[in-house]
Amino acid sequence: MKKRSEFKQWLLLIVAVATVAFVLFWPLPKYIEGPGEASAINQFVKIKNHPDKYSGYFMLTSVGITQARPVTYLLAKFFPYYTIENPEAVTSGQNMTEYEKVQDFYMRSSISQATYTAYKAAHQQVKLIDNGIYVLQVQPQSKFKDKLKVGDVVTEIDGHPFKRSDNFVKYIQGKKKNDQVEVTYLRNGKRHQVTAPLMQIDKHRAGIGITLTDNMTVKTEISIKVNPGDVGGPSGGLMFSLQIYSQLIKQDIRHGKKIAGTGTINDNGQVGEIGGIDKKIIAAKKSGATIFLAPYVKPTKTVLRYEPDHITNYQLAKQTAKKYAPNLKVVPISDFNQAIKYLQNQKD
């Protein structure tokens, strides 16, 4: 009887451990998105002879993404600023290797755009260099599916060089489905060529079947190094530009405050919207920020016609702060100059 009792105890212990392990560690085919971190950007930016010696911080906010486990799945149901997402919604159907590569590219690209914007505003020499067309995704039905990969940089079509995507798109628009095109591209710095027919993109145009963007870098006279660590994506552009600008002009434009924010930025200084701004508001609050710079892009009549309930980044940020971070001031920002003007008026 004693041995049988000990066996039952061990069996119950094993079942209990297995149950706990399942609840804590078993991966589910879902992702949990929630507040990430709000990190001081000056730790990422180093500019020769231009240190950041002022108090306060510009803060880079992020969204935390983790694969769901049974316990985190249940917990996410009870916290309004956590959401449960399908893998396709997070990675756009890409595997994690491709997804991380694209996010890294987006971050490097946003830093280049931010650097260009900041140096230009500070009247420092800077040059934006077009390096070709970066492949973000290859559609499954594309004839180039097994030929081009995420991360390739297209430099020529049929021997015609293209440094920016707009000229590339115009050239392809003049062709039809099944027309053969020769694509020259760089992969890991090595030049390759491949020929295949175009596919039908929609009723009116043919195409290679790739999602693309411009691959740009900057060249500056004053040396700069930016290392964002593990943070990826394009949403840090605005905040990086403010940090870089403040170091270049050697002025205290923060006035001792912790200023968080988010938003893409282009080479004209325009600020673009991003995802997960409600979660970034929570991250900013937890890190002690008192001001949050939120992208504001005025919706067009067309957008409002098809999305009558459309809500801007600024509106969502404002709503979230009112409910969960009432002491966090949310400021709408449409472009770099507007952000600078606002900061210059925040001396008190």
How many structural domains? Answer: 2
The percentage helix is 25-40%
Shape: globular
Number of discrete helical segments: 10
Q: Return the CATH architecture of the largest domain.
A: 2-Layer Sandwich
Description:
The mean pLDDT is 89. The protein has two domains: 36-63 and 107-125 and 221-344, Ribosomal Protein S5, domain 2; 130-215, Pdz3 Domain. By secondary structure, the protein is an alpha+beta fold. The protein is 35% helix and 29% strand. α4 runs parallel beside α6 (237-249). It has helices at 2-25, 70-76, 87-91, 96-121, 165-173, 237-249, 277-286, 301-306, 313-324, 336-344; strands at 31-40, 45-47, 57-67, 83-85, 126-138, 153-157, 160-161, 180-187, 190-197, 199-202, 205-207, 210-220, 224-226, 258-261, 264-265, 271-272, 291-295, 329-333. Strands 4-1-3-14-17-18 form a six-stranded mixed β-sheet, with helices on both faces. It is built from ten helices and 18 strands.
